[in-house]
Amino acid sequence: MTLTLLTALLAFAFVSSITPGPNNVMLLASGANFGVRRSLPHMFGVSIGHSFMVFMVGLGLAGLFVTFPKLQMALGVVAGAYMVWLAWKIANAAPPGAGEKRGNPLTFLQAAAFQWVNPKAWIMAVAAQTAYAPEASVWGALFVAIGFMSVNFPAITAWTWLGQEMRRFLTSRRRLQVFNWTMAVLLIASILPILLR
User: Fold this and answer.
1) CB of 153 within 8 A of CB of 43?
2) pLDDT for 166-184, tens place per residue?
3) Torsion sign (Cα): 113, 155, 160, 179
4) How much is the pTM?
């Protein structure tokens, strides 16, 4: 891979990782509700889970959608249902320090599994492998996946940290509830354009 292609891959990975989407909305909410430290398993699940997905797509997994178009429709239904459940979980997260915990950050496995039903993650993975590993080799797929992981984690850390910093403005239970419901609505809204294509 040439230096020009590597630079282009890292730029694409950074821009697609830092822009708003389901993962970043959830991490912003997690940072605000639980802080960066408690959100670390969620963050690692997103970064490692998505990079693994990028690698698998590079090995030809995306071809299943061409062969079995109904599989893509089924993924859309599962993604929509899972997003609604996650939005409900965000909307009803307990405020920090609440006596009775009503919520926890996503675990590593939950966040990693979420990548497989996240429409933005699929688009990013297919676009990256198509543009930056056109020879479709195992090494090309691995290189693209590692490139994504190297810039994805810093990008999602910024969103989680921003959420944590917002805690000082979310000092009342009412403000936090408004924030959480806003994040829940934004999470669902972030996938509507993709699902309704």
Assistant:
1) yes
2) 888 877 778 878 887 887 7
3) negative
4) 0.77
